[in-house]
Specification:
- With about 290 residues, the chain is mainly alpha-helical.
- The protein has one domain.
- It is built from 15 helices and two strands.
- The chain has helices at about 1-10, 20-30, 35-40, 65-75, 75-100, 100-105, 115-130, 135-145, 150-180, 185-195, 200-205, 215-220, 225-235, 240-250, 260-285, and strands at about 10-15, 15-20.
- A two-stranded antiparallel ribbon has the order 1-2.
């Protein structure tokens, strides 16, 4: 019976060794369930997780509060205004040390000439106007160095460049700190005029003689005037006064020539008219 049972189960014994038939092996593999297969293919629990992840160096630990305070302090309105004042003081000191008036006495460098010299002069003109150098002196120098036509173009380009630099510096570094200080009646009126009627106000300011060029630039920067009206009004409004000074500088060697006399008249008459208008406005404001 034992032999029959061994034979019925599909196995044979030979020398104490049991050998399974292919049919029995197939039937046994067919009965393996998914749970048993998952139990066979498993990851050892003792394997460290760090071996499965890449090693990334950690940044140095910086207190978040300290960094935030430093950032706020550096970007605060008064810090930016202080930076603007330092830049302007440095520019003015550089001009005083460089003595740009030597260009009139010593002449323009001989290696520069023509349009290239005019471009270099326009760039220097713009930087000098930011550093509070009076524009009439720069316009006279443009006429003396380059003549009427090329000198007028170089002076106008330098005027727009200097106005744009001043406007950008005032807008980025000074507007946020100075706008809360516009509390007086006249200051609020001027700010409203520049903000609402930018092109017209700036054109009148450029045509009106006697107003400081740098002062108008920074007042416009503190207001809400946009870039395009400011630059366009500066370019158009500066033509008469700039051209008159350039022609006067170009014809300074012949002070009795008609061109020189006309240029001086174009300089003197607007100045006289501006003085009369300012005197009448002063009395009108006193009457109020």
């Amino acid at each position: 019976m034992l032999a029959d049972a061994a034979t019925d189960s599909g196995g044979t014994r030979s020398g104490g060794t049991a050998t399974a038939t292919p049919q029995a092996t197939t039937q046994t593999a067919a009965h393996i369930t998914g749970t048993e297969l998952a139990a066979v293919v498993t990851v050892p629990a003792a394997m460290p997780v760090a071996l499965l992840l890449p090693v990334v160096p950690l940044p140095p630990v910086i207190p978040a509060g300290f960094a935030a305070r430093c950032t706020r302090a550096l970007l605060s309105p008064w810090s930016r205004l202080s930076l603007l004042l330092v830049l302007l003081a440095g520019a003015a000191s550089t001009v005083l040390l460089f003595h740009p008036q030597r260009l009139l006495s010593d002449g323009w460098p001989p290696q520069l000439g023509g349009a290239m010299a005019a471009l270099v002069f326009a760039a220097a003109y713009g930087l000098c106007s930011v550093a509070f150098v009076p524009r009439p002196l720069l316009n006279l120098a443009a006429g003396a160095l380059f003549g009427s036509q090329l000198g007028t173009g170089a002076a106008l380009a330098g005027t727009v460049l200097g106005a744009g630099i001043s406007f950008g510096l005032g807008r980025v570094l000074g507007q946020d700190a100075l706008r809360p200080l516009l509390r007086g009646r006249w200051l609020k009126a001027a700010d409203g005029q520049l903000s609402r009627h930018g092109f017209r106000s700036m054109l009148a300011a450029r045509l009106f003689p006697g107003l400081p060029f740098w002062g108008v630039n920074y007042c416009a920067a503190v207001s809400r005037m946009r870039w395009t009206p400011f630059l366009l009004a500066t370019a158009l409004g500066s033509i008469p006064n700039t051209a008159a000074y350039v022609v006067a500088g170009a014809r300074a060697s012949s002070p009795t020539s008609p061109a020189f006399l006309i240029a001086m008249a174009c300089i003197a008459l607007p100045a006289l008219g501006g003085a009369v208008v300012a005197w009448r406005k002063r009395h009108h404001l006193r009457a109020q």
